[in-house]
Design goal:
By secondary structure, the chain is of the alpha/beta class. The chain has 12 helices and 12 strands.
Length: about 375
């Protein structure tokens, strides 16, 4: 199968109306938000066309999505831990996380995160009235000593740890040993772990993804086909637990998913494997390309290719205190500022490599010209 990242021209991309392509003027290359520059996989398009032709435009029902997710987990990760009766459909991962936080903790209980991490972790958690406590990564990885010190000092009845697995923005894939250590500490100190695993399908084929629930019998997870197949417009996600607690979610939570979302995500998981494999190969090529381009043209920028996601985490502290502003103003390349990712994000940017090699090359060319001016 052809590389999905090489099939859509820049001219056609600029006709899109999503936020990636409407936030900045046309002379800016947008490599900021987490949208890939791909066309949907054919099985997804066919599933939506079939639904439209049938007039199947009502409300979602049934367990097709969690069943497809369970089959995907078995095939891809060798994991049979998804019990459909212990799942719940939610509108998307972040709103699902909010509901799970409210389910297992009280308004005064804090939520612990390990930055640098996805900025909505801060925004959505604080919207519930809960404080955010940081237990930063060490050299990009979970640090048991930091986690234990943080868990020890939290004074709360039902604290929560919000895990990003794989990590956004660094692309780190947490190992079984790291996750097992986290689970042990969580049990010892009475911390409930909720895992955002939306990037799980995007782990390099040379790396092993370990679902958090495979190491923690009290764990909860949010999973979705959204990032793996670029389906943000078709909202749906699955909450997964090792307990029966999801039956206690408010009824209105089940009203959030889109019927088209569940149809599209189910088709992706059941029939989109070949497309996903081609995408993963293309992402590996783009990581290598970006590393080579930066080494040649911008050695001031620190970057190590990650094992997952379509995101690259760039250390630009040698160039600017605010590199995102620097590159968009002087190079006309839009990147995500690292400042919003919490401690450790200062002087960094997140660059989306879910695009064509040509656009990545042009972006680095512009960035280098901006620095050399």
């Amino acid at each position: 199968m052809l590389n999905p990242l090489s099939q859509v021209s820049l001219e056609r991309l600029r006709r899109r109306k999503s936020v990636k392509w409407r936030e900045y003027p046309d002379d800016v290359l947008p490599l900021w938000v987490a949208e890939m520059d791909v066309d949907p996989a054919e099985p997804i398009k066919q599933a939506i066309v079939d639904a439209l032709e049938l007039g199947d435009t009502g409300y979602p029902a049934g367990t097709d999505y969690p069943e497809a997710l369970a089959a995907f987990a078995h095939e891809r990760w060798g994991w049979d831990g998804i019990a459909v009766e212990r799942t719940a459909l939610v509108s998307d991962v972040m709103l699902g996380i909010v509901e799970l936080i409210k389910l297992v903790s009280g308004p005064g209980d804090p939520v612990i995160v390990s930055p640098p991490v996805y900025p909505p972790f801060y925004l959505f958690v604080r919207s519930t009235g809960r404080a955010v406590i940081e237990a930063p990564l060490t050299n990009g990885r979970l640090d048991p000593a930091v986690l234990e010190r943080t868990f020890q000092h939290v004074k709360a009845d039902h604290p929560v740890y919000l895990l990003c697995n794989p990590q956004n923005p660094t692309g780190t894939v947490h190992t079984r040993d790291e996750l097992t250590a986290l689970a042990g500490l969580a049990k010892r100190y009475g911390v409930r772990v909720i895992a955002d695993e939306i990037h799980a399908p995007l782990v390099s084929q040379s790396t092993k993804f370990v679902p958090y629930l495979s190491v923690d019998d009290q764990g909860m997870s949010l999973m979705s086909a959204s990032k793996g197949w670029n389906l943000a417009a078709m909202r749906a996600a699955v909450a997964v637990a090792n307990t029966d607690e999801l039956t206690k979610l408010p009824e209105e939570v089940s009203h959030g998913p889109s019927h088209f979302g569940t149809i599209a995500h189910t088709a992706a998981l059941r029939h989109g494997g070949e497309w996903l494999d081609a995408l993963l190969a293309g992402l590996d090529e783009n990581r290598t390309l970006l590393k080579n381009l930066l080494t040649e043209h911008l050695p001031e920028i620190g970057y190590e290719p990650s094992e997952a996601t379509f995101l690259a985490w760039l250390d630009c502290r040698a160039i600017s205190d605010d590199p995102a502003a620097f590159f968009v103003e002087r190079g006309r390349v839009a990147l995500m500022s690292g400042a919003g990712f919490g401690s450790g994000g200062e002087g960094h940017v997140r660059l989306n490599i879910g695009t064509s090699p040509e656009i990545i090359t042009e972006a680095v060319t512009r960035m280098a010209a901006a620095v050399r001016r």
